[in-house]
Design a protein that fits this description.
Blueprint: H1 6-9, H2 16-31, H3 41-48, H4 52-68, H5 70-80, H6 83-107, H7 117-127, H8 133-144, H9 147-161, H10 164-179, H11 181-202, H12 207-213, H13 218-227, H14 238-247, H15 251-279, H16 284-300, H17 302-312, H18 314-334, H19 338-366, H20 371-383, H21 385-400, H22 404-407, H23 410-428
Helix pairs in contact: 2-6, 2-8, 2-9, 2-11, 4-7, 4-15, 4-20, 4-21, 5-6, 5-8, 5-20, 6-7, 6-8, 6-11, 8-9, 10-11, 10-16, 12-13, 14-20, 15-16, 15-19, 15-20, 15-21, 15-23, 16-19, 17-18, 17-19, 18-19, 18-23
């Protein structure tokens, strides 16, 4: 009597809805690291006597690992599924936040000096690993859902997950006000650990990856996965799709667009709390609410931005949103009046959120033969703006004095103009796309 095969004894676990829930929870928890230092930067300035440029590096450092790790960890999904990459990134984030909690518990405020600045950066970089879960979750969700339902599923995933920095910027200061600076990072640590537990329960890999892990042969795993509704299957070579996308010149204008608006969004979420308090001398809570409002608004408007891109075309929506961003950046650069700067902030947030949606509408349109690799480059290198821009803002503030905090937003004026130019180039050459 023949022994039962692996195919006949294996039962696929999970469902698309459950996988979407797990990935969204994991991304939401990890993405909160964008606000790891922003709401607390003023406390570190007082304790460590940091310069504006040092503050810029401090608030930006979580974005370095959170951006660069998107590429290799997003590619890892194509080999083993998303669960293991998700857990590795979230556990690294736990180590970073735990290190920050330990530093503050032991050293803050009297023994926290500039000599501990490199250690602060190290733990911040580890904490930022959770930001890289974005590219892992994109693959995790995409492999579970049929193509006809992916737009809605990914909009839910990205839209809800992106609200995390705004909520952290709002809630973290409340916790700190109640229990001290160290308590904020202790609660953050507890939240991330809870998120890891939830993801472990709900974050099942798509059927193909479950079957392969169970020992089912490639061809049979593909057949069974398709029978379970899995339409997308991983590319045979991840390195090949990354190479092909890098060789397409159209990938790089898309990177610039995402650098401007998603990287810019990350940078402002981290920088704004310090800006409001230093330039306008607002109260701590006014700075918190202005920053949280920007982050939440820019995140949530990304969801309808995807629908507008489907209906009106990605190039038209990108051009319109970048124009809105440009106007807002000019206002923020030239204004010394609070309400006018707030109006500029709203325009900047709207432009960034809508353009973020438009970019991923354009990815399959302009690089159709290497969508996965292009999404990796765009998501990873584009998010690097969150690391590059804050030190630039800090450098301008340091060189020009107080007015430099406003004039620094000229960086966004330049980025918006360059991005509009590249949008025009893409649109002018769209007929050459295969």
């Amino acid at each position: 009597m023949p022994l039962p095969s692996a195919e006949s004894t294996f039962v696929v676990k999970g469902s698309p809805a459950r996988a979407l829930f797990g990935a969204t929870v994991g991304f939401f928890i990890g993405f909160g690291a964008v606000s790891l230092f922003g709401p607390t930067a003023h406390s570190f300035i007082k304790a460590m006597q940091l310069s504006p440029q040092e503050v810029g590096f401090l608030v930006a450092i979580p974005m370095l690992t959170g951006s660069l790790f998107r590429i290799p960890f997003g590619a890892w999904v194509d080999r083993d599924g998303g669960k293991l990459p998700f857990l590795v990134l979230l556990i690294a984030s736990v180590v970073g936040i735990a290190g920050l909690y330990w530093m503050l518990l032991v050293l803050y405020p009297n023994h926290l000096t500039q000599s501990q600045y490199p250690l602060l950066l190290l733990f911040g970089a580890l904490g930022g690993c959770g930001i890289a879960t974005f590219s892992v979750g994109i693959g995790q969700v995409s492999y579970w859902y049929p193509k006809s339902q992916q737009g809605r599923a990914l909009a839910i995933y990205a839209g809800l997950g992106n609200t995390s920095p705004g909520l952290v910027a709002l809630i973290l200061p409340l916790i700190i006000a109640a229990g001290g600076l160290w308590s904020g990072y202790l609660v953050s640590l507890a939240i991330v650990l809870t998120g890891i537990a939830l993801f472990t329960i709900a974050g099942y890999n798509a059927p193909f990856f479950q079957l392969r892990r169970h020992g089912v042969k490639l061809a049979e795993a593909q057949k069974i996965a398709k029978a379970h509704g899995q339409e997308l299957l991983p590319a045979p070579s991840v390195l090949k799709t990354l190479k092909e996308s890098a060789e397409s010149w159209r990938t790089w204008p898309l990177v610039v667009l995402y650098f401007t608006t998603f990287g810019g969004f990350l940078a402002l979420t981290a920088w704004l709390p310090n800006f409001w308090q230093t330039f306008y001398h607002t109260s701590h809570w006014t700075a918190v609410f202005l920053t949280a409002g920007f982050s939440l608004f820019s995140s949530l408007i990304r969801v309808p931005g995807g629908s507008w891109s489907d209906r009106l075309g990605g190039e038209a929506v990108a051009a319109a949103s970048l124009t809105v961003l440009l106007v807002g950046a000019v206002l923020m650069t030239l204004s010394s009046v609070l309400w006018l700067t707030v109006a500029g902030e709203i325009l900047v947030g709207a432009g960034m959120g809508v353009n973020n949606a438009a970019v991923f509408k354009l990815v399959p349109q302009y690089v159709p033969d290497a969508v996965g690799g292009t999404a990796g480059w765009v998501g990873g290198l584009g998010a690097l703006g969150g690391f590059v821009v804050p030190p630039l803002l800090g450098r301008i503030a340091q060189s020009m004095g107080p007015i430099g905090y406003a004039r620094g937003y000229a960086v966004y004026v330049v980025l918006a103009l360059v991005s509009l130019l590249f949008t025009g180039i893409l649109y002018a050459t769209r007929n050459g796309v295969r």
